[in-house]
Structures are given as C-alpha cells and as structure tokens.
Amino acid sequence: MMLSKGLKRKREEEEEEGKEALAVDTWWLDPGHPAVAQAPPAVASSSLFDLSVLKLHHSLRQSEPDLRHLVLVVNTLRRIQASMAPTAALPPVPSPPTAPGIADNLLASSDAALSASMASLLEDLSHIEGLSQAPQPLVDEGPPGRPTGGAPPSLGALDLLGPATGCLLDDGLEGLFEDIDTSMYDSELWAPASEGHKSSPEDGPGKEEAPELDEAELDYLMDVLVGTQALERPSGPGR
Amino acid sequence: MAGAGGGGCPAGGNDLQWCFSQVKGAVDEDVAEADVISTVEFSHSGDLLATGDKGGRVVIFQREQENKSRPHSRGEYNVYSTFQSHEPEFDYLKSLEIEEKINKIRWLPQQGAARFLLSTNDKTIKLWKISERDKRAEGYNLKDEDGRLRDPLRITALRVPILKPMDLMVEASPRRVFANAHTYHINSISVNSDHETYLSADDLRINLWHLEITDRSFNIVDIKPANMEELTEVITAAEFHPHQCNVLVYSSSKGTIRLCDMRSSALCDRHSKFFEEPEDPSSRSFFSEIISSVSDVKFSHSGRYMMTRDYLSVKVWDLNMESRPVETHQVHEYLRSKLCSLYENDCIFDKFECCWNGSDRMVERVQYFKL
After folding, report:
1. Which of B66, B130, B198, B235 has an alpha carbon within 20 to 30 A of A70's alpha carbon?
2. Which residues constitute the domain of residue A57?
3. ipTM
C-alpha cells in the first residue's frame, strides 16, 4: 500500500461519500449550492482543511499569536472538519484527537508557551500513530520540502524500532509496539519512487528523507487527523 | 502614507463627490516597513489629523487657514508635529517582543490651548500633550542669551525679562503612561463623554481608566472562558456612547455587538442589548464567520445609531432595534466570489475602519488599498 495511492483512494472515497451523504445541514456538500458551485465539494473541503491546518500551525508559531486570527481559523477548521466527517456507515474509530481537539488543546495553552504545547501534542500523536517525524513539518518555513540544512533527521518511527538512537529506546518500548503492524512506517514508504512496502525495519535508520518527504508527512498527518488513515490499518489497539 | 484611501456612501442620495485632496508620504512601492501607517484619527474639529505608524511614530497634520483669496480651495494639511510615541519593548517574563506599532489614536476634547491625545500599541497606552510655543523670554538677569551663567559680581542692574516672538515650535510631551493592564493585544481605546475616564479593549477584556490615575484600572468586561479550549469569540472593537457616560458597546469576531450599561453592575459581562443579524442561508460558506467579524464600531454623533464594519459591508444599526441593521451597504461585493483566494492569502483577515461625518451622513474609510 503506497502512500500516494492511499491518498488518491481517500479522495475518491470522499467524493462518493459526499454524493451519498447530502443532507439539509450539509449544504457545503451540495454541488447545486451557489457557495460550492466553483469546485468539486470533496476537493474543496479537503484542500481547505489542509490550508486551515497550515494556517493554524503558522499562527501558533508566532511568539504571540493573534488571538482573533487563531479563533477564526479554528472555527473555520471546525466547520470544514464537520463537513468532512465520515458518515454513519463507517465504524466508529477510536481516533487520535481530531483537528478541533488539537485546536482546543492548543487554545487551552495559549496563555503559556503555545509552541511547546503543540509540540508535545504532536508528540503524543506521534506516539500513538508512530509518526514522530511530526516536528519536521513545523520547522518548515515558507516553501515546503527543503529539510533544514544540515540538521540530522528528527527521531523517526523507524528509530524506535532500530538500534540507532539510545535516548528513546527501551526494550519495554518495543514491547509496546509488538501488536501494532508497523510495516506501514517502513522508511521505504517515504521514498517517492518506491512501490509497496516491505517489512524490513533494518532498512529504516539508514535512509535520509527526501525533500518530498515533508509534504508527504504533512499529508499523512492530516489524514490521521481526519481519521481516515486510521481506518486503513488492521484493527488493533489503534487508540 | 503607505497606502491610504477613501470611499464614501452617503446615507441616502448620491450627491457627494469624492476625490483625493492630498496624498502625503511616499507614493512609490519602496516604503520602509516602519513607515507603514497603522492608524489615523481626526481631531473633533477636524483641524488636526493624527497618524500612527508601525515604527511607533505619531505624525500630526494641521489644516492651514483657508486662504481668503481662494475661498473655494480646501484647506491643505501640513505637518504640525512628529514624535516617537512608543518604542519596541521586551517582556522578559514571557520572553516576547512588544511591537511599537501604534494601533489606535484618540483625541481628547479640547479644553485649553494645548491638545491631548491617547495613543496605544499592543500593551501600553500613553497620554500626550501637544502644545505650541511661539514666544520666548529674553533678558534674564542671572544668565545671558546662550544660557551661560553670568558672574554675579558683574551684575549691576536688574531688568525684567520680556517675551519675544519666535518661530512656532510644537512640543509633544508624554503626560501619562498606562501600562501593564492588558494580557492580550489592545485593539481599541475610547474616551468617555465625562472627559475623565476612558476604556481600553483587548481580545478578551475591557478596562476602564481614569485619565489621572495610571497605576490601576477597572476591568468591566471579561469574556475569557475558564477553560481556554472553549474560546470561540474575541472582542474586536469597543466604544463609549457619545453622551451617556454609562453606556458602551463592543463588537465580536462573530459579528455581534453588545451594548453594556455600567450602572447595572460593576462587571458588564451581561449585556443590556445584543445586536446580531441572522445569517442569510443563501450566502453561507465556510467563510461566513470570518467575513462577519466586525472590525470597527462607531456611534453616530447623535448617539441614536451605530455603524459597524465587517469584511464586505457597512451596517447602520438603530440602538432601539437589535434584530437587524436599518441599513446595509455592500462595500466590495465583487470580492464575495473570491473568498477562497482571499482566505488563502490571508487578506480575508484584514480589518477596516469606518466613521461618520459631521452631519451623521455615513462615511466609510478604507484602511488600505489592495490591488
């Protein structure tokens, strides 16, 4: 299962869901509605969601965030996220905090060091999902894709499994992940040219991220936030 | 001025003509960030125009006396005084830099020869006295003309100093500094009709000050939720009623306006009136809330009406009717179809001001142009 394929599949699924789930209170999915006539509903709300998450991150990166901007973006994100919510047909997923949850947590710490709380929140997310590359997209300023020059790759999910770093590793930690299928976090998944995945964790630590990695990571992170990515994993502890 | 413009929609009738009378400042693209004007405010009589910029400076323009030989020419505004109002500061506790950008200027009603204004950045309000000096004393006994002390043994006669005219000098001196009362960014200040108190508003709180007292203020509105996770709305503007010193209004990011009466309780968290126009279902979008966010609220001089500005329109409200405005004027309706792009480039978050003209026929003032 390739990440890019997964993405495409997600969008097609969403479009079908969008057509099926038209209801009075989901006017934003109604293609006849003048407000959404311009773009296909699923694409519009999905890219708006991405954009809003980016804006939220950017806003929180400020040393003193503009509270009005923050509140307006969060409220808009909530609207978009509500419009993208899976229909009743899908099984309820014990998903990690979705965007409003994150936003709520972020707002809660707005008096204190916001970036610190966001980092820890994403760290929590990463421990749940195995995506501890999360700090990397935050470091990205402006044009996406370029990793910070010379900086060593941030602690990856792969590193948790491999022998590379000593700081996070415990034998106990490996025990935690025993029953989770970690094959999807294999490093080869991140390389743009690779097809499929191999369960070869030892390949992991050696790979450097490609510039495209950050964008893929961000997409993956957002899939996780929306909860759709979680559905693709075999039923497990999930959390 | 790094970008200034004017527009007008008179309330009833298109008999007004609008044009640029003067353009001050740099007209080209090459404008230093510090020179970007962040706020403008006329004095009550209109003879002075104060501007604040991102560099913390205040520049006051004065209208020249109209020339009798050219009775139809409009009075020109020329620089009257320039001073540095605010400097960048560093909050060591929070490890944050406080911008010197002037957010708002408000003139105090004129009571003597000197003029007073309040200027504020994100955290600190200052009261400035602007006074003219056009005479100086000459003929001191103890010092000579360059100020050097004279040898007392050489003084043989006493003289009375006399006042001689000099070139007009305008001095600005800080008289009060009102600091440390706001956790969030100050967006409004408003002088009360009692001429003794004024309010300052940030995103979540409104404080009441006495002009003479700098070491304390009273909090009169506090919308900060106990749990910040529940925050969905911030204060965007606030103003005192022009005649009733106990009445104030504040607007929110959700497009609502609350009127409060300070006589009812010390803390005005419960409003006396609540103004909100129901959302038009046909124009709903993801951006409905953002474009409904009120960026400015102003009472009419009569005190009977108030005007609010949101992203696309100006609305006039009758204080006696809370359900909807009595007039709505679309300012740039052509932008409604471009909201997505405007959201993308953050322009949708821009704020505009509005003001009434002298006869309470509405004037809308655009804060800056966009191409």
Report:
1. B198
2. 45-84
3. 0.86
